[in-house]
Amino acid sequence: MRLALLGLYHETNTFSPVRADRAMFRNGGVWRGDEIVEAYAMSSSTNGGFLVGAAEQGAEVVPLMFAFVTPTGRIAADAFDWLVDEMIGLLRDQGPWDGVLLNLHGAAVAENHADADAEIATRVRAVVGPGVPVGTVLDLHANVSQRLIDALTITLVYQTNPHVDAKQQAIRCTELVVRTIRGELQPRQAMVALPLVCNIACQDTSEEPMVGLLAKAREIAGRPGILSANVVEGFPYADVPQVGMSCVVIHDGDADQAKRAADELAGSIWAQRDALQTTGMTVDEALDIAVADRHGPVVLLDAGDNIGGGSPGDSTVILEAAVRRGQRSLVQTICDPKSAQHCIEAGVNSTVSLAVGAWQSHSAGQPVQITGRVRAVSDGKFEEPNPTHGGFRFFDMGPTAVVDTTAGHTLVISSIPVMGTSLQQLLSVGVTPSSYRIVVGKGVNSPRAGYAPIATRMLVVDTEGVSAMGLDRFDYRHRRKPLYPFESTGFAPMPFD
Asked: Matching InterPro entries, A to Z (predicted)?
């Protein structure tokens, strides 16, 4: 039994002007053949789960090609065509296949394809034909379309946020694909797209209302004949027709039962539509709470500069406020290649004076003038062996410098934006985050798994930026209408008898 493994995994913030172009992918964003095994076999990622699942099922998995870069704006048209053409060519030339394991995010947007994931899946299906099972595991932030579902045999979705179940879902997906190949299962999928956008700050799966919705999905999944039931939170920073929440249910052999179950789950989600909206606290409100906390550290989640949501990672909004208020004992990362290089050239123990951050056209805040001592320099590479958001293990911040400023702040200045999902990002350069009163996390949900062990509390801060909490700040031109909470609308999924 031969299974092909391939994919293009990208979360696209269409409000960011930064394109994921050929150069970005060529600079460490493409793996071919055994490179996939080397990079992901020991990780808790989707690819890691596919490899483990295939071994457990006694299937031969053939890694073809995988592409991934940190979330940005749209994938450049020529980059998308180059990557997908090569992947599809490998799939065609190295077949025939018994099944396909396809690693997609679900919120990818290319300049030439608004529903990039569906385009990839459709092209895979055209190569292997209608009878070959194709399975995928989508990110919980997927914006799912019917076209995508129609091209797939098995669609599972992360059901944790932070995403710490990628490996487990991929193992399960592989099992279902193999059992389908063996004739033990006849998967029938149903998807319901809700006219609903969920605020990013309401998507933590350890908090209500997501706790209750996921419990409902598990209850449905436990019924006879149901193979899987998935809540999909969606990614609100994509101006595409398919933006929004959805649910996907798979039944063994009965499409009507799958649809009825999906409608029931959709009804439960719709009933919580108001609870899935929120407003955040200001920077000053968050700093007031942090100052009042006598223990710390308090982690301030910088929503508007969420690197995992496509922001640049160079916002100075919280840093500016801390300087203005005289608040000391703060540590944060900031992506600023020129400042990092300046500090590296100055050398360890040198005193530097420079303006850091907010160097891009879509950055939040203004460059902040700092003076400080260069504590350390690094190549920026670090490893996180434990499951964190997305299950990734190897990270690269590029040339990096640590500066202790006269204002009492420690800045980890990197050259490449990296999601703040792991304490190793700071520990690897000699910074102990637990020794600070305030830690700034560049994200909303993605830092929670990594930073929870040291935090006395985590506060979501409604900062400006291309991933700001308040969706009314964005100019949507392609989303469907009506869509709650932008417009009032009704929704009546089929009742479950």
From this structure: MlrC (IPR009197), MlrC_C (IPR010799), MlrC_N (IPR015995)
Give φ, ψ of 94 to 5 degrees: -100, 5
Beta strands in 95-181, from DSSP E residues, in sequence order: 99-104, 134-138, 154-157
Q: In what order do the strands lie in the sheet with 246-252?
A: 187-193, 246-252, 226-232
| Per-residue pLDDT reduced to its tens digit, 101-132 | 999 999 999 999 999 999 999 999 999 999 99
Q: Which residue is listed with tokens 């596919």?
A: 50
How far is 135 from 487, CA to CA, in rounded Å? Answer: 35
* 398-429: pLDDT as tens digits: 999 999 999 999 999 999 999 888 999 999 99
User: Is the bond preceding 241 in cis, omega lying within 30 degrees of 0?
Assistant: no
Task: Take residue 386 and report the two structure tokens written for it.
Answer: 């434990």
Contact 53, 170 (CB under 8 A): yes
CA nearest 232: which of 73, 412, 89, 106? 106
pLDDT at 280: 86
Residue 89 CA to residue 476 CA, distance in Å, equals 35
430: left (phi over 0), alpha (psi -120 to 50) or beta: left
State yes or no: pLDDT of 496 exceeds 70: no
Query: Do residues 99 and 181 lie in contact, with contact meaning Cβ atoms separated by under 8 Å?
Result: yes
Judge residue 92's burial from the number of C-beta atoms within 10 Å of its C-beta, 0-12 exposed, 13-18 middle, 19 or more buried: middle
DSSP H or E stretch at residue 90: helix 77-93
With beta carbons less than 8 A apart as the criterion, state whether 48 and 167 touch. Answer: yes
Q: Mean pLDDT, the chain, as a whole number?
A: 96
Residue 469 · residue 460 · CB < 8 Å: yes
Cis, peptide link before residue 96, omega less than 30° from 0: yes
> Does residue 88 sit in helix, strand or coil?
helix
Query: Are the CB atoms for 46 and 391 separated by under 8 Å?
Result: yes
Query: Is the pTM of the predicted complex or chain greater than 0.85?
Result: yes
What span, in angstroms and rounded, lies between the C-alpha atoms of 312 and 306?
Answer: 8
Query: Which two structure tokens, joined as six digits, stand for 241?
Result: 């027709």
Question: Which among 335, 321, 355, 492 is positioned nearest to 417, based on CA atoms?
Answer: 335
Residues 6+ apart with CB under 8 A from 412: 331, 332, 333, 334, 397, 400, 401, 402, 425, 426, 429, 431
Report the percentage of the chain scoring pLDDT > 70: 99
Q: At 253, list the tokens.
A: 């052999």
Cα separation of 105 and 117, whole Å?
7
Q: How many angstroms separate the CA atoms of 266 and 436, rounded?
A: 43
List of residues 6+ apart from 79 with CB closer than 8 A: 19, 20, 21, 22, 24, 25, 110
